[in-house]
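Q: Sequence in, structure out?
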Amino acid sequence: QEQATYTFREINNIVNGICKIFKSLKLNKGDVISAVIQNSVEYLIFYLASLRYGTIFNPYPYTLDSKDILRYLSGMDVKIIFCQNKHYNDLTKNHIHSVYLIKDNYLKGVDSNADNWDDFIPQENTPACLYYSSGTTGNPKNILFSYKNMVANISSVVRGFKFNENDIHLIVLPLGHTASINYSFLPATLCGSTIVLSESFWKIRAQFWSLIQKYNVTYVE
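A: Exactly. Output:
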C-alpha cells in the first residue's frame, strides 16, 4: 500500500492548484459539487479546495453503488461529480451530470507551485457542505451545513475533547460520512495536528495496534 507524507504547506499549495482546476471547469461560488472518493489525501484536498473556492461540497460514501448515488442526486442541481474509476463508467452513462475522473496518483499532476488563491469569504449562513445522512431512523437524506454550523461544531469538538497540535489522529472510518470529518479531519486541521489516514479499517486490521504504537496515535475515528 502506497504511503506518502504531506506537510500543511504542501497541502495548502495543492489546494490552490485544485482551485485553479475548479476555475478551468467553470465552477462558480455556490455550485454544488458531489464527490465519491475513497479515503485518500485526494478526498481531503478536494474538500479543502471546495471550502476555499466557495462551492458546496456534497460527498457520498465510496461504498455506495452508482445507482444509489444517482438516486440521491436526482432532483438536485449538481454542477459536477468528482469520482474515481469504480463509479466513473456508471455515472457517465447517466448523461445528466458532468463527471470528472480522478485517476490514480492524480495529485502528482496538479500544479503544487500554484500562486496563492484568495480564500472565499463567506457570510455566516453561507452553505458550505451538503452531507449525506446515515439513514438511521429513516431514508438517507442530504443535510445542509453552513460555515457557521461548521465553525461552531468543530470548535466545540476541539474544546470538548481537549484536542491540540500534539494529537495524532488515525482515521479508519469512511470520509464520505461525517464522523471522521467532524471528529478528526477538521479538528486536526484547526489545531495543526497530524492525521494518519487509512483507506479503511479492514485494510489495516492486522496492523491496527502496531500502527497505533508506530505513530503514537492519540485518537481513532
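The CA atoms of residues 165 and 193 lie 4 Å apart.
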